[in-house]
């Protein structure tokens, strides 16, 4: 990479374009002037044909020939000076025009630079919306707008996530503090009251730990995969079904499975968490004695799909997108978990979506006409 000399400020791209225009015009103009001058000399000083030379010369012939040579030399020199002066003038004008044209051509880049300098957490909603032909600069502006849109969505999700996490962590801490203060406010608490306080504190601590573990899992799921492995989505689903088998028996669910081969390449640990969350949510929010169906198979040549279906109340279509937002529990789904089910952190499906995105896939939810939900996890096949 060429570096500027010490003491010389680097030239801007507008200045470089202007100098390039001027240099090209100077070279072209110089070649034109030289060509015109050479042609002028060639046609003026070339000898006369033999048939045009007179047979008898006038006594003053030599005098006229010398005078005509002087006139031609003076005319050629004058023509050359005028051509060079015009060349200098045209080069100067072309440099000014090139400076103006370069500024016009680079105006979109200046707009992009100004927008990048203004970009902050409060201005990410602004867009360039460059007009003009679909050229490289228009493509650059559209790409910059898309980047701002992604950043705006990421910042909004981060602000919403931090607010929700703060609220969720405040609840177990408040319960712990209330249990301790109530017990300490009693003049002489007995052993059973101390035990009750200890149980309340332990329950609140477990809830806070579960929330923190879920937040860490979600953060890890949104990062780039570092150690992908070969595995089969059917095997991961089978292991997850073994873990929820006892809960299925408690709720008397009709379990159906059709686990076809679904080879993939990814993080087995994160995929196991995602599939387990899908099944646990299906069991927790499904109807008592209802259906739980789990299927896996290839979806086309380059995709594998895992689908989890359960029974339950009918879900409005406008709530489906909210299912994958952080801290959306039973109320956000239009149904409540079973009476003996522990309340979760509300991050299960958020983790599923983060894991799917990290693997280059996606997760979708569809409301069943007869009630309940069908959630499909689509991932790239191995």
Automatic annotation (TrEMBL):
Domain Histidine kinase: 164-382
Organism encoding this protein: Streptacidiphilus cavernicola
CDD domains from the UniProt entry: HAMP, HATPase, HisKA
InterPro entries: HAMP_dom (IPR003660), HATPase_C_sf (IPR036890), HATPase_dom (IPR003594), His_kinase_dom (IPR005467), HisK_dim/P_dom (IPR003661), HisK_dim/P_sf (IPR036097), Sig_transdc_His_kin-like_C (IPR004358), TCS_sensor_his_kinase (IPR050428)
Positions of transmembrane segments: 82-102
Keywords tagged on the record: Kinase, Membrane, Phosphoprotein, Transferase, Transmembrane, Transmembrane helix, Two-component regulatory system
SUPFAM superfamilies for the chain: ATPase domain of HSP90 chaperone/DNA topoisomerase II/histidine kinase, HAMP domain-like, Homodimeric domain of signal transducing histidine kinase
Catalytic activity, reaction form: ATP + protein L-histidine = ADP + protein N-phospho-L-histidine
Domain HAMP, residue spans: 103-156
Enzyme Commission number, as recorded: 2.7.13.3
Domain of life of the organism encoding this protein: Bacteria
Name used for this protein in its record: histidine kinase
Subcellular location: Cell membrane
GO molecular function terms attached to this record: kinase activity
């Amino acid at each position: 990479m060429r570096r500027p000399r010490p003491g010389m400020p680097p030239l801007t791209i507008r200045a470089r374009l202007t100098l390039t225009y001027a240099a090209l015009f100077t070279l072209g103009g110089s070649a034109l002037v030289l060509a015109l001058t050479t042609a002028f000399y060639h046609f003026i000083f070339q000898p006369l044909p033999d048939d045009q030379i007179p047979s008898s010369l006038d006594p003053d012939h030599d005098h006229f020939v010398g005078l005509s040579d002087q006139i031609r030399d003076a005319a050629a020199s004058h023509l050359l000076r005028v051509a060079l002066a015009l060349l200098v003038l045209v080069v100067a004008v072309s440099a000014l025009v090139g400076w103006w044209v370069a500024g016009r051509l680079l105006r979109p880049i200046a707009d992009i630079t100004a927008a990048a300098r203004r970009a902050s957490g409060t201005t990410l909603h602004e867009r360039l919306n460059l007009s003009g032909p679909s050229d490289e600069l228009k493509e650059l502006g559209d790409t910059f707008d898309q980047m701002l849109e992604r950043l705006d969505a990421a910042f909004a999700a981060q602000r919403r996530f931090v607010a929700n996490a703060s609220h969720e962590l405040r609840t177990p801490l408040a319960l712990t503090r209330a249990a301790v203060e109530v017990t300490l406010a009693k003049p002489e608490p007995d052993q059973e009251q101390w035990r009750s306080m200890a149980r309340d504190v332990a329950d609140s601590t477990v809830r806070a730990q579960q929330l923190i573990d879920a937040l860490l899992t979600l953060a890890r799921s949104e990062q780039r995969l570092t150690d992908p492995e070969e595995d089969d989505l059917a095997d991961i689903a089978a292991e997850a079904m073994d873990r929820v088998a006892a809960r299925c028996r408690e709720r008397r669910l009709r379990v159906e499975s059709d686990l076809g081969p679904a080879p993939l390449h990814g993080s087995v640990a994160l995929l196991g968490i995602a599939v387990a969350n899908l099944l646990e949510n299906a069991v927790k929010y499904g109807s008592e004695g209802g259906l739980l169906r789990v299927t896996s198979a290839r979806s086309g040549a380059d995709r594998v799909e895992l689908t989890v279906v359960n029974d339950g109340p009918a879900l409005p279509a406008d709530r489906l997108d909210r299912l994958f937002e952080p801290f959306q529990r039973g109320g956000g789904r239009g149904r409540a978990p079973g009476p003996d089910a522990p309340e979760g952190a509300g991050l299960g499906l958020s983790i599923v979506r983060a894991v799917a995105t990290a693997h280059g896939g996606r997760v979708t939810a569809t409301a069943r006409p007869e009630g309940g939900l069908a959630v499909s996890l689509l991932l790239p096949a191995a």
